[in-house]
Amino acid sequence: MEVLTLLVLLAVVWGVLNAWTWWREKEVLPRLVDKSVLITGCDTGFGNLLARRLDQLGLRVFAGCLTEAGVAELRQSCSERLQPIQMDVSSSDSVQQAFLAVKNGVGSKGLWGLVNNAGIFGPLGSVEWSSIADYQAVLNVNLLGLINVTKTFLPLLKKSHGRVVNVASGAGRVAVPFQAPYSVSKFAVEGFSDVLRRGMRCFGVTVHIVEPGKFSTGITAQESIRRNMYGTFESQSPETKKEYGLDYIDEMHKGFNEDAGGDPNLVTMAMEHALCAAHPKSRYVVGQGTRLVWIPISWLPTDLGDYVIRVMIPWMAPVPAACKGEK
């Protein structure tokens, strides 16, 4: 009876705590119209959706776009408050030019928010298929570009005691075997975000991590994924293609197709909360797959986690033709 009473008490405490947390997190900052935010990677996807949403809320948005077409599209479809900037996060010169534009725009107020959203997938396939150049290309955007942008804009963020929002991934918690460069970059983003959060707290700058699963954006479009997977396979040597076999790619592609992408607005809602809530979270796990599968797997002992992936999610780690039949 005492055990039952204790369980009921714990359930009540848990319920009250969750209700209080939900109520507390609903509070929005006052006078959002006085705040300025820089978002990278606004040509399409999460960045484009977030730029539009924050513009509707009245914030001043500096939308970093890689292409002139992205700049023109946002300039035409959003209010005059939104300022599109052509910005390549992998180029230090481009980042510096964007910094000058933002600095001139915000003046003495500083920058309230920085959303490091720009990212690329890189080649998909076996870990040994990606070259050092492939890793470098992905890291230049997903990690080194993110670090450079953050370091460049920190002085403006310190002025306003602002916020940094870094887009990581569920693949930064559980390594996806056929996304080697991407997973490596996102694990590093997690680490950088942690050290940045702990190091900037005394300056009043807070850091927030968004970890999406698979969502329907240009980067995960089925045709794009298919071209990536089969293109990477075809670029391998005849010996490697024989060793792995076409079934290796077919299995991986079939599994990826079965994992339908979610509504990308769920991710932008998390980003918006991180920027606009009076009491934001330090970490946002977005998507049922990430919350119910990837994160729990990341808590398991290493060998058990590997076993779960191998047995329950075989398309994540298909067996090469040369290894079939081996124990």
Structure description:
With 327 residues, the chain is α/β, with parallel strands linked by helices. The protein has a single domain, classed as NAD(P)-binding Rossmann-like Domain (Rossmann fold). Helix content is 55%, strand content 10%. The protein has 12 helices and 7 strands. It has a 7-stranded parallel beta sheet, with helices on both faces. The N and C termini lie far apart (51 Å). The mean pLDDT is 90.
What is this structure, in a nutshell?
The chain is α/β, with parallel strands linked by helices. The chain is built from twelve helices and seven strands.
SSE inventory with pairings:
Blueprint: H1 2-25, E1 36-39, H2 45-57, E2 60-65, H3 68-77, E3 83-86, H4 92-106, E4 113-116, H5 132-160, E5 163-167, H6 180-200, E6 206-212, H7 222-234, H8 238-244, H9 246-258, H10 265-276, E7 283-286, H11 288-299, H12 302-312
Parallel strand pairs: 1-2, 1-4, 2-3, 4-5, 5-6, 6-7
Helix pairs in contact: 2-10, 4-5, 5-6, 7-9
Structural key phrases:
327 residues; Rossmann fold; 7-stranded parallel beta sheet; NAD(P)-bd_dom_sf; signal; HSD17B6 protein; alpha/beta
The separation of the N and C termini measures 51 Å
| Residue-averaged pLDDT | 90
Our count of helices gives 12
What integer value in Å does the Rg equal? 22 Å
Structural class of the helix and strand makeup? alpha/beta
Question: What fraction of residues sit in β-strands?
Answer: 5-15%
Largest β-sheet summary: 7 strands, parallel
Succession of helices and strands: HEHEHEHEHEHEHHHHEHH
- Going by CATH, the architecture would be 3-Layer(aba) Sandwich
Shape: globular
Uncertain runs are none
Instruction: Give the C-level CATH assignment.
Output: Alpha Beta
Q: What is the CATH H-level superfamily?
A: NAD(P)-binding Rossmann-like Domain
| Structural domain count | 1
| Annotated CATH topology | Rossmann fold
Number of strands: 7
| Portion of residues within helices | 55-70%
Q: Numbering strands along the chain, what is their spatial order in the largest sheet?
A: 3-2-1-4-5-6-7
